[in-house]
TrEMBL record:
Signal peptide: none annotated. This is TetR/AcrR family transcriptional regulator. One of its GO terms (molecular function) is DNA binding. The keyword DNA-binding applies. Residues 1-48 form the HTH tetR-type domain. It comes from Chitinophaga agri. Keywords: DNA-binding. Residues 11-30 bind DNA. Pfam families: TetR_N (PF00440).
Length: 190
């Protein structure tokens, strides 16, 4: 409900009604709405961490792994109202710090590992500055969720993610990598 409607507009009564339990039962498990939001966000971040690991293990190559992550981001983006992110930053700064820590630790680690994998496979350029490219990729992904930069009235989030990703892939791949990428997405190999 928070992802669809934002945090402020959802009440504990709404949560109890949607869950099919009494408000008293909700309060037996969560001290207040802040704790509920925090636990929900931790659950979501833990799930995201598991998905990143699954994509790494279940992908034939670094490019497939990267594209699975992008598809997952698109799916997540379809279910997250940007208002929730804004409200979390403004009204729940401690929770937002956990999100920021997750991005800096887990996301950066996953992006860096993907870059290293691609270099080892010969599909990414060997001359990449990993810390610069990983940070740039994280910033690219963050911009998609900032409505001021890509207003929903003017941009389709999935198209933005795909364009940014194609641009990123073209910038980091070797000719071999572009050949591999062309099997997954529509890009020119030349």
């Amino acid at each position: 409900m928070f992802r669809m409607y934002g945090i402020k507009s959802v009440t504990m009564f709404d949560i109890s009604r949607e869950s099919g339990v009494s408000k008293k039962t909700v309060y037996e498990h969560f001290r207040d709405k802040e704790e509920l939001v925090q636990e929900g966000m931790r659950f979501m971040l833990k799930g995201h961490e598991q998905h990143l690991e699954d994509f790494r293990q279940q992908s034939a190559n670094a490019i497939e792994e990267l594209l699975k992550e992008v598809k997952y981001m698109e799916e997540m983006g379809n279910t997250i109202n940007p208002v929730m992110l804004y409200e979390m930053q403004k009204y729940h700064p401690a929770i937002w710090r956990e999100v920021e820590t997750f991005k800096q630790e887990h996301m950066m680690r996953a992006i860096t590992a993907n870059l290293e994998r691609g270099i080892q496979e010969g599909s990414y350029r060997k001359d990449l500055k990993l810390n610069v490219m990983a940070r740039m990729r994280l910033l690219q992904l963050e911009t998609v969720f900032q409505p001021a930069l890509y207003p929903a009235t003017q941009f389709n989030m999935q198209e933005v993610i795909r364009e940014i990703t194609a641009h990123f892939i073209l910038g980091i791949t070797t000719p071999k990598g572009r050949e591999i990428a062309a099997g997954y997405i529509q890009i020119e190999k030349d």
